[in-house]
From TrEMBL:
InterPro entries: Arsenate_reductase-like, Thioredoxin-like_sf. It comes from the Bacteria. This is Arsenate reductase-like glutaredoxin family protein. Transmembrane segments: none annotated. Belongs to the ArsC family. It holds the Pfam family ArsC.
Length: 93
């Protein structure tokens, strides 16, 4: 089974062959935990800034464009404001 964090309006239409083989999680109402997001980043070989969504988010208002911010600070901002997580994020087992 695969798992995908996404926005519900971007999901596969009902009846699509993959819609039963993939578990979809609405990351805005049920975001991954800090630990889960850190593990996803580890598996991707990525850092928080790599999946940080800038447009249509509080990115600038929160000062996240500051290059001095640590990965931990960015991760905390993403958990507190899940709209900052660029999606979809797909995991396969």
């Amino acid at each position: 089974m695969s798992q995908t964090f996404h926005q519900p309006d971007a999901a596969l239409p009902g009846g699509h062959p993959l819609s039963e083989a993939v578990a979809f999680d609405d990351y805005l109402t049920a975001p991954p935990s800090r630990e889960a997001l850190a593990e996803i980043l580890r598996m991707m070989g990525a850092r928080p800034r790599d999946i940080l969504r800038r447009w249509g988010t509080p990115y600038v208002e929160l000062g996240l464009d500051d290059p001095a911010l640590s990965d931990e600070e960015l991760l905390e901002a993403m958990i507190a404001n899940p709209v900052l997580i660029a999606r979809p994020l797909g995991l396969a087992s």
